[in-house]
Structures are given as C-alpha cells and as structure tokens.
Amino acid sequence: MDSLTPREIVARLDRHIVGQDAAKRAVAIAIRNRWRRQQLPADLRKDVTPKNIIMIGPTGVGKTEIARRLATLVGAPFLKVEATKYTEVGYVGRDVESMIRDLVEIAIGMVKQEQRVQVETKAKDRVDDRLLELLLPGTTIWNEENPEENDRNERVREKMKAKLKAGELEDREVELNIEQRMVPVQIFSNLGMEQMDVDMQNMFEKLMPKQNQNRKMPVKEARKVLIEQETEALIDRHSVAEKAVELVENHGIVFIDEIDKVAGGGAGHGPDVSRQGVQRDMLPIIEGTTVNTKHGPVKTDYILFIAAGAFHVSKPADLMPELQGRFPIRVELTDLKREDFLRILTEPQHSLTKQYIELLGTEGVKLDFSPDGIEALADVAYEVNRTTQNIGARRLHTILERVVEEFSFDASERRGDRILIDADYVNGRLREILQKEDLSKFIL
Known about the structure:
Blueprint: H1 6-14, H2 21-38, H3 42-45, E1 53-56, H4 63-73, E2 78-82, H5 98-135, H6 147-166, E3 173-180, H7 194-207, E4 211-218, H8 219-234, H9 237-251, E5 253-257, H10 276-287, E6 290-293, E7 296-299, E8 304-309, H11 321-325, E9 329-332, H12 338-346, H13 352-361, E10 366-369, H14 371-387, H15 394-403, H16 405-410, E11 418-421, H17 423-435
Parallel strand pairs: 1-8, 1-9, 2-5, 5-8, 10-11
Antiparallel strand pairs: 3-4, 6-7
Helix pairs in contact: 1-2, 5-8, 5-9, 12-14, 14-15, 14-17
C-alpha cells in the first residue's frame, strides 16, 4: 500500500468500479496522506490529523463498493459498519465505541496472520517432532545404561521421519490431546456496557478449567491441529496486541454506512436514542478520544473515518453541525446513466456478464452476450430505474438473473451447448415486464 500513489489507487479502483471519479480521488488522496504523515518528523506528525470524508449519493452507485475495494488495497485495519446498528449509551443496543473494539480485533487478526507466516517453518519442524512422538511413543527417552537401545531408537526414528517426510504415513492413526475452548458468556452487552462484558469474559476464561479431550485421527488431520497449536504457542500475544493497537491508531480506517439514517430534525417525541444520541456519541470518537479495549487503550485521533449515505429523506445539513465539521471533505456521487450501465456490464475485471459466462461454463455451457444484447440490458436497467425506484447498479442483478434464468435451470442438461444472448432474446424475456404499468411489482 505504501508504494501506491493516488493515481495508482484510482487505477486499481477503476478495474472494479465505473465512474465516480471524485469519490475515488478523495479516498486515494486520504489513503496516500496516511503514508505521507508517517514520513514527517515526530513533532509535526502528531499535529497532522486525517481529513474525514462523507460520500453523498443514491443507493447502488458505488459508495459501499468503493469502500469494499479500498479494503483490499490498503494494508491497514478496515471496518465497515452501519450507523443504524448503534444507540445512545445506556440503551439496548451497541454503543459507538464498539466500532473501535471491532477494529482492534481486525488488527489482531492481521498481525497474527503476519506472525503466522514468520513462524510457519519453525512450527512445521516442531509438528514433525510431535508426530514422531505420537507414532513412536517412548523412543525419545534416553537410557544411559543401555546405549544400544538408544541407537536402535534413533535409527527407528530416522526411518520413520523419512517416511513421514515422504507422505507415506498420512493415513496412520494417532491419538491427540485437544483443548476444548469455552464459549464466552455474554452478560452485559445488551445494556450498553460492552467493556464490562469484555472484562467479565476475560475473568471467566481464567476461572473456568480447561477441558482436554483425546481424539484419534489420521496423521494428515492431526498435522493441521498440531500446526495450529504450535503456531499459537510461538506467537507472542503481548507483541501482537501492542502492534495491533499501534496499527489501529496510525492506520485504522472506519467506513460508516447509512449515516443519513441517523440524521433527523428531531421532530419525534421522547428520547431520540438512535439518531441525535448516536451523533452525540460519535462526536468524541471521530474528533479523537481514548477507547478502552481488552487489548489496551486506543486513541482515535488519527483513525480515518469515511461516512456514506443516500440522503433521500434527510439532508447532510440535518446532521449536527459539530458532526458535519468532523467530515471536512464532502463528495457527491452521481446517478448512473445508460452509458454507465453499458460500462458496468463490460469494463470491470469481473463484470456481471463475465460472472454468468464463467458460472455456466462450469456446466460445460458456452454463454455469450452480443453487443446489441448488452445494450438492451443497459436500456432496460436505465428505463426501469427512471420510471420506478432508482436502485442503481443493483438493478442489473435482477434483470440479468431474469434473462439467464432458463439457461441456469437447464444448464446441467445442456452440456456442450452454445448460447447467444442478443437484443431479441433480452426483449423477449423482459417484454411482459416492460408492458406492465407498475414495474416495481415484477422487478425489485
């Protein structure tokens, strides 16, 4: 990720997402600024905070897809959440601090995976030794009074080790001791006291006795279990936690979707625990505060927040002024035109048409889309979005599924067939739908 320039990040996103250049440029600059900040002197670095982004646009135009693809590009902890899942502290539901705890858990997994790769070779060597002990119990004991037996055991072990390396013992059964993990007990999380829940879980894990079970299994299955055990033993948990917290604090990214659903004018009655209350709780998190997690305190000052919303009913101005100020970069995503649908069907690396071609190809059916067939699909998608509810590119999923439905159902019986989907076939399959006055009853 460090070597990617903004132009290269946009080029990578262009492989999967059509249009929306302004949003791509904004996230590319924000990601690059994370790297630039790390190159600054320490005294200046602490004053440079990320410029959070809010993406505004109708559903199905690429807001979430940009975030999802961005997650695959950045070597940083990335979390996507929905703003609607949170409530004000003290009420039933998750409080906003839990997003930071979830982000830390993602970072823990990332750091563990890195360390797994580093200790993989050593873990495999230790697994071979343990498998030899299971296959030849007692041969590792050194008897000073009987050197001949020691030499004999050593020769047997060497022969067995050679067979093990050659894969000749994969089906031999061994008996393995496996630790049964206790399922954590959820106690207080529904009361908005998630940190207390974490503390209680840790306490129960320490108090509960560990349950071990002996199981017989083939060597090939035992090897997987032993590699997991040895890898866990070689990984330094304290080091993992420290690196994960540092990774979150300096490189973490949180994508908050559906933020328009917590915007409101406050016209309702009673406490607005899922709107204004959530916004108030988000303020310190986004501005910069310290969140307690079971892996240690985490500062949120340098975490990048990207928010997105359709804002069909509400407006960005309906958000609290303080929260608006936390998102200085505002990007508007545009509605999809007919030309955009054409590009979506053909340009992305794994476009929808390519997906259906490959799916039916697994059954031996050769599927192809003619240029006029793709144009007909784009025409229908654009027209239905224009005359009914506009759901953006998601409309193509429903239309394409309807068009290839018959072939998908019969594909296993049509092995070797070549099928061409052209404009006539598309219009024939969708004619009944297009003639109906209320299209929304037939195309979701």
